[in-house]
Design a protein that fits this description.
116 residues; globular; single chain; mainly beta
Length: 116
C-alpha cells in the first residue's frame, strides 16, 4: 500500500532554514505528482508546492515562492522541501501528499515551528 513518511521538522529561529523529507513507497514514484500541504494552528489546509516527478516541473504558492524549493530523488523515492528565510507565519504541520487529478494519499505530517 501507499506509504508517505515525512521527517525533518523541528524548531527553527526566524530567518533560518529546514529541509523536509518524505519517503515514499507503494506506487510508481517516478510517474506521479507530489505535493507539500501545510496546516497552521487553527487554520485550514494550505497548498504549498507541487512537482511532477517525471518532468520535474514545479509550482509554488505565492506565500512561499522564492523561499521554498521542492525536489525529488527518484532513485530514493523521496520528496524534499527546502525551506529558507523561514517566518513565524510558516509555523504549521507540513504534509506530503500524492495524486494526479486530485490528492489521493497523505503522510502523517511533520511539525515546523518558527520562533525565537
Amino acid at each position: 500500500q501507499v506509504q508517505l513518511v515525512e521527517s525533518g521538522g523541528g524548531l527553527v529561529q526566524p530567518g533560518g532554514s529546514l529541509r523536509l523529507s518524505c519517503a515514499a513507497s507503494g506506487f510508481t514514484f517516478s510517474n506521479d505528482y507530489m505535493y507539500w500541504v501545510r496546516q497552521a494552528p487553527g487554520k485550514g489546509l494550505e497548498w504549498v508546492s507541487r512537482i511532477n516527478t517525471f518532468g520535474g516541473s514545479t509550482t509554488y504558492s505565492d506565500s512561499v515562492n522564492g523561499r521554498f524549493s521542492i525536489s525529488t530523488d527518484n532513485a530514493k523515492t523521496t520528496l524534499y522541501l527546502q525551506m529558507n528565510s523561514l517566518q513565524s507565519e510558516d509555523t504549521a504541520v507540513y504534509y506530503c501528499a500524492r495524486g494526479w487529478s486530485q490528492i489521493s494519499n497523505w503522510g502523517q505530517g511533520t511539525q515546523v515551528t518558527v520562533s525565537s
